[in-house]
Automatic annotation (TrEMBL):
Keyword Kinase: yes
Entries under PROSITE patterns matching the protein: HIS_KIN
Keyword tags: Ion channel, Ion transport, Kinase, Membrane, Phosphoprotein, Transferase, Transmembrane, Transmembrane helix, Transport, Two-component regulatory system
Organism the protein comes from: Pediococcus damnosus
Name the record gives this protein: histidine kinase
Subcellular location: Membrane
Alphabetical list of InterPro entries matching this protein: BphY/WalK/GraS-like, HATPase_C_sf, HATPase_dom, His_kinase_dom, HisK_dim/P_dom, HisK_dim/P_sf, Sig_transdc_His_kin-like_C
A matching Pfam family: HATPase_c
Gene3D superfamilies from the UniProt entry: 1.10.287.130, Histidine kinase-like ATPase, C-terminal domain
Top-level taxon: Bacteria
Length: 421
């Protein structure tokens, strides 16, 4: 079922990416093509406009000398008047029919294989007398002028450009097809990873919750079988149930923190903190606890300037690390807390002389619900969520956390948090 959902999701992603690329290419191709075509016509049309203006104001019908355009004068009946100047073009030109509808317009005309761009206007100049001063007959006076230009090469250019665009569109389409397929697979990876993580999280959470719930249920059912017993007589069952409830409580609040962290609901509230005072406040209650377990606490806080951190979260982070250092050390052990500023980073180090963490598990301990076998799940009673939360707090501060071995045995947790200058 999951595989089918994933496959469907990937195909959907692929299609979205493929068509988005295609749409972008189509729009880009169309813009380039229209621009190219417009540009071609614009330069021809501006030449034609210039030539028609000159021709319509000219005082003779020879027309201005030009190799690109042909100028044809018509009388009021539509008869060509300057055929003697048209040379070998005369026969082609005689086939052209002019139409008053086209007056003052620029348009294309097909003559055989040739495409002509035409501009048709009225003649402004009044050619009433010829060069010799003789009056010109009405039928010999130009009334309309048509300026032509052969645009076949330009149109062939446009056509070739279109073919080139189409060919590149097909090639790009194929490339995009392959790229979209690869990208969609690549994009699915984090989705699949998150999905798998979520599944594992729910599985482990259900498993973790089931154990205390079963214990509480058994104890309560046990109580129901002895209705006449006093609370004192059943104290151990009640104490155990309460301790399991406490565990459930801490488990759910940890899970809630992680779930919220995952969905980016929690944002950091950084404030300048007097770190020495802050650390002393955290360590004070632990000093007694550590002493009561016949362990030693050594502290060295060398941070004089205020640091910009989310005090609540960093407090939580130090408690998690300190709690582990106490939990995973035997009596007589030493727990050392150092902190200083190093290269614009706030460095917090919590070292212990406890059971240590094998190299193999140095990465795994940050995974949710992960607990090392030797830490003795039953005895120390953790959820395996502490370090996951610690890792999240550190990464939310854009910092780093790493575990190294304490030379004399045990582990060193080093946290680096970037703080403002
Ligand atoms: P909790 O969620 O209550 O903190 P936990 O302590 O088991 O439970 P983590 O703090 O995430 O969970 O630690 C994960 C595991 O890493 C521990 O179970 C333990 O095996 C190992 N570990 C953590 N800190 C230390 C340490 N200082 N020394 C040795 N092992 C450690
Ligand atoms: Mg812990």
């Amino acid at each position: 079922m999951d595989k089918i959902v994933n496959r469907k999701q990937q195909i959907k992603l692929f299609l979205i990416e493929f068509f988005s690329f295609l749409i972008v290419f189509t729009i880009l191709g169309t813009i380039i093509f229209v621009f190219y075509q417009r540009n071609t016509y614009n330069s021809v049309d501006s030449t034609l406009t210039r030539r028609t203006q000159m021709a319509s104001n000219s005082t003779n019908m020879m027309g201005p000398p030009d190799f690109q355009t042909i100028t044809i004068y018509y009388n009021f009946k539509g008869k060509i008047l300057n055929s003697q100047y048209l040379n070998n073009m005369a026969s082609t030109v005689s086939k052209i029919k002019v139409n008053k509808d086209k007056l003052n317009k620029i348009y294309n005309l097909e003559v055989g294989e040739t495409t002509l761009r035409c501009a048709y206007v009225k003649v402004h100049s009044q050619m009433t007398v010829d060069r010799n001063g003789e009056p010109i007959k009405r039928s010999q006076r130009p009334k309309y002028v048509l300026v032509l230009r052969n645009v076949t090469p330009e149109l062939q250019g446009v056509e070739r450009f279109k073919e080139l665009l189409l060919a590149s569109f097909i090639v790009f389409g194929l490339i995009v097809f392959i790229i979209s397929y690869i990208i969609s697979g690549y994009n699915m990876k984090p989705v699949l990873k998150a999905w798998k993580q979520q599944e594992e999280f729910v599985d482990s959470a259900a498993h973790e919750i089931r154990t205390p719930l079963t214990i509480i249920q058994n104890k309560l059912e046990g109580l129901m079988t002895k209705p006449n017993d006093t609370i004192k007589e059943q104290a151990s069952a009640i104490i155990m149930s309460l301790s399991e409830i406490r565990r459930l409580n801490s488990l759910t609040s940890d899970m809630l923190t992680l779930a919220r962290a995952n969905s980016n609901v929690i944002t950091l509230e950084k404030t300048p903190v007097n770190f020495t005072e802050f650390m002393n406040q955290i360590l004070e209650p632990y000093a007694d606890l550590i002493e009561s377990q016949n362990k030693k606490l050594v502290t060295s806080i060398n941070v004089t300037k205020p640091v910009l951190i989310d005090a609540k979260r960093v407090h939580q982070l130090i408690v998690i690390l300190l709690d582990n250092a106490i939990k995973y050390t035997p009596t007589g052990a030493t727990i050392t807390v150092n902190s200083s500023i190093e290269n614009r980073n706030l460095k917090i180090q919590i070292c212990d002389t406890g059971i240590g963490i094998s190299d193999k598990n140095k990465k795994s301990v940050f995974k949710r619900f992960y607990r090392e076998e030797k830490s003795g799940n039953k005895k120390t009673g953790g959820n395996g969520l502490g370090l996951s939360i610690a890792e999240w707090i550190v990464s939310a501060h854009k910092g780093h956390i790493k575990i190294t071995d304490n030379p004399g045995g045990g582990s060193i947790f080093t946290v680096l948090l970037p703080v403002a200058k």
